[in-house]
């Protein structure tokens, strides 16, 4: 029977804090929040529940010393989960009050439950950020790829792409022009490739590539920068043409997608700079 082991105490406590905060966030709102069954409410619940489940898994594996038996790279998996948890809880902390607290049609008790969930969501985001800060690679330290700046950038890229998918899907914002369909293709292709890198690193399968991993990262990074540069220009050009009728909610989604596209372009640009330096240093 495996012995219970305790990792770095700071990491242990921030993970326990994140576990408790996410648990309270979705438990409180499920108990008395009276959330409607719709996209944004489901997204917030998913953010808290997914983060809670993954953090619980990490804690159980580490406390029972099962890292060697895990089918993933334990130098990459926990920090990947922590980074996704930080982004998920941060997004829920912004989206939830915007959609479900400003509405004053509900009685005060329901709003109190929702406010409490928002507070604990913010605390969970802070706890996950603390875990990422404690786990990320320091200069000169040997660590897994996901603990480095390029690895964390990959997580951010995939997360931003997921938010874009949510915004453009309901209502559909990309079917009115061929240029917008190209932008959607850019989002999908780059998301798939970035997620493939994350999966390869967490699954320790980078050696399966027919070319060196560092060169693959540089080639893919250059392609993604070029593609996102075109999307950053094309999306607002064809979305904000003169229209007789404008739906305010639809317009706000278009603006959000434009901002997120530019943000992902900058993330891919920074990633390319890191990857190119990795190739030159290795050479």
Automatic annotation (TrEMBL):
Keyword Membrane appears in the UniProt entry: yes
InterPro entries in UniProt: Marvel (IPR008253), MYADM-like (IPR047123)
Residues in MARVEL domain copies: 6-140, 145-280
Subcellular location: Membrane
GO cellular component: membrane
Alphabetical keyword list: Membrane, Repeat, Transmembrane, Transmembrane helix
Recorded topology in the membrane: Multi-pass membrane protein
Transmembrane segments: 12-31, 43-65, 77-101, 113-131, 151-173, 185-213, 219-238, 259-280
Family: Belongs to the MAL family.
Name this polypeptide is given: Myeloid-associated differentiation marker-like protein
Provenance organism: Channa argus (Northern snakehead)
């Amino acid at each position: 029977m495996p012995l219970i082991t305790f990792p770095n105490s700071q990491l242990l406590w921030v993970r326990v804090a994140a576990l408790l905060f996410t648990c309270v966030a979705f438990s409180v709102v499920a108990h008395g929040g009276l959330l409607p069954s719709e996209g944004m409410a489901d997204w917030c619940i998913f953010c808290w529940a997914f983060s809670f489940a993954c953090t619980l898994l990490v804690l159980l594996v580490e406390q029972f010393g099962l890292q060697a038996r895990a089918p993933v790279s334990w130098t990459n998996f926990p920090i990947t989960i922590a980074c996704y948890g930080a982004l998920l809880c941060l997004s829920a902390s912004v989206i939830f009050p915007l959609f479900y607290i400003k509405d004053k049609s509900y009685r005060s008790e329901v709003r109190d439950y929702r406010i409490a969930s928002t507070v604990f969501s913010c605390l969970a985001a802070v706890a996950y950020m603390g875990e990422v800060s404690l786990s990320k690679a320091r200069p000169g330290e040997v660590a897994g790829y996901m603990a480095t700046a390029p690895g964390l950038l990959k997580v951010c890229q995939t997360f931003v792409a997921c938010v874009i998918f949510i915004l453009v899907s309901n209502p559909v914002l990309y079917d009115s022009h061929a240029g917008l369909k190209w932008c959607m293709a850019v989002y999908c292709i780059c998301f798939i490739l970035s997620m493939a890198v994350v999966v390869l690193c967490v699954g320790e399968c980078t050696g399966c590539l027919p070319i060196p991993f560092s060169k693959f990262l540089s080639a893919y990074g250059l392609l993604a920068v070029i593609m996102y540069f075109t999307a950053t220009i094309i999306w607002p050009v064809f979305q904000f043409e003169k229209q007789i009728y404008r739906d305010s909610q639809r317009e706000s989604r278009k603006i959000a997608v434009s901002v997120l596209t530019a943000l992902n372009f900058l993330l891919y640009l920074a990633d390319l700079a890191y990857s190119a330096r990795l190739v030159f240093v290795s050479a």
